[in-house]
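Quarterly update, task 2.4: Gibberellin A9-bound model.
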Amino acid sequence: MPTMLTDVFRGHPIHLPHFHQPDFTSLSNLPDSYTWTSQDDPLFTVAPPPTAGENIPLIDLNNPDAANQIGRACRTWGAFQIVNHGVPLELLQGIEFLTGNLFRLPVQRKLKAARSETGFSGYGVARISSFFNKKMWSEGFTITGSPLNDFRKLWPQLHLDYCDIVEQYEEQMQKLSSKLMWLSLKSLGVSEEDIKWARGSSDFNWAQSALQLNHYPVCPEPDRAMGLAPHTDSTLLTILYQNNTAGLQVFRDDLGWVTVPPVPGSLVVNVGDLFHILSNGLFKSVIHRARVNQTRSRLSVAFLWGPQSDIKISPVLKLVRPDESPLYRSVTWTEYLRTKATHFNKALSMIRNHRQE
Ligand SMILES: C=C1C[C@]23C[C@H]1CC[C@H]2[C@@]12CCC[C@@](C)(C(=O)O1)[C@H]2[C@@H]3C(=O)O
Ligand SMILES: O=C(O)CCC(=O)C(=O)O
Ligand SMILES: [Fe+2]
C-alpha cells in the first residue's frame, strides 16, 4: 500500500496554536504578536527597485505557442497566470462560495474540524507557522482525500453538496495540472517517454493532491501584518484560485516582491520544489507570500499537486549534462514533506548533491 498524504505527518507532530486564533473581526489594533518586522522575516521589507512594473506572464492556453511561454515562465519566474484553461467559471464560483461559507462559520464550529498535531486535514493556522515568531493574519483549511467527515461536522445538513463541489474541482485541477506539466516539459524537449513513473498512465494514478483553502480577514494595519509568510510549495505544481482581492506576491532576486493582480476567471500556477528537482533546477520553485488588506477580505484556494507519495523523484536524465552529475538526489514526496516539516526553507538545499571538486 502506498503511503497516502493523510499519513505523512503521523509520527511528526507539529505544535500549532489553532486554539489561540483571535476573533479577527473584533480587533481594531494589530496586536504585537501579529506585528512583523524584518527581524521576523528578513525579506519583509525588501523595497522594490525603481524600475518595478514587470509582472508574471499571463498565458492563453489556446495560444499555439503556450508550451514555450510556459517553459519560459517556469525558468524565469517559477510562476504564471493562465486563461482559457477550460475549468468552468461556475466551478470557480462554486469553490469560492464554499470557501467563503466555511470561514464565515462561527469559530467554535470550525474548531470541531481542527487539524490535529499529527493530522493532515482540517481547520487551523498554516503549517509553516511554527517556523516564525509572529502570527499570520489568516486561517486555513486543508483537504486531502474525502472531506466527508470534516464537512459533516461543519455543515450537518449540506455536507454532501459541498463534497460534490470539492470532488469536481479536484478532478478539473488534476487534469489541468498534468496538462501543464507536460506542456512545460515539452518546452525542454522532455516527453512522457523520459519519465518512467509517469509514463503512459493517462489515468493519473501516479498523482496525488491536497486542497488548501485560505482566508485573510480584513486587517486594521495591513502594512505591518503578514497573511502567509514567504515559502515555496513542496509540490510539482500548485494551481491557485484567488478571489478579486490582491495579496499574492512572488519574489524575484532582481525585482523584489511582485504583486500578482487578480484577473477574473484566471488561475495562478507556480512551480514547486519537486518540479525544481525534476527539472534539475531549470524550473525555479518560487518564493511567494500573501499580504492582507484594510478594507477587503481575501480568499484563495491552492491545489497542491504531486506524485504518489512513495515514487522516487529525481532529475530527468536528459536535462543533466553528460559530464555532470544531477543537481539533486532522488526523494519521495513523503520524505520531502517530512524534511520540509522539520527544516522548512532549507529542505531543497538538503536534497542537493554537492559536487566533489
Ligand atoms: C501537501 C502539502 C503542501 C503543504 C503541506 C501539505 C498540506 C498543506 C500545504 C501548505 C499550504 C500552505 C503553505 C504551506 C507551506 C503550508 O504550510 O501548508 C504548504 C505546504 C508545502 O507546500 O510545503
Ligand atoms: O493565498 C495566496 O495567495 C497564497 C496561498 C499559498 O501560497 C498556499 O496556500 O500555498
Ligand atoms: Fe504556497
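Highlight for this quarter: The pocket of 2-oxoglutaric acid (ligand 2) is lined by residues 212, 214, 228, 233, 240, 242, 247-248, 288, 290, 300, 302 (CB under 6 Å).
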